[in-house]
Design a protein that fits this description.
4 strands, 4-stranded antiparallel beta sheet, Multidrug-efflux Transporter Regulator, Chain: A, Domain 2, 33% helix, alpha+beta
Length: 89
Amino acid sequence: MKATINAPSVQTTNTSNPVESLGSSGFVQPALIKKKELARRLSISPRTIDEWVRLRKIPHLQIGPRFYLYDFEAVLAALRKLYQVDAAV
């Protein structure tokens, strides 16, 4: 299985619990979520997320032809940078 990462150049910091997400190398792994969960957290429709992915506005990890995963913190950082606002989440 081939996974590709498509992300705008956005620097983020992961604020999730590092104890729960430490990888075998000791690095903090981002918590990846599905489109439906991302839409719920942002209070938008899943179709809007599809459009943002198509326009490459938000970072995503493509697992298959129609399956993507998202790092919530990276998406928030990309939206803050794109729209120059501080999202209230």
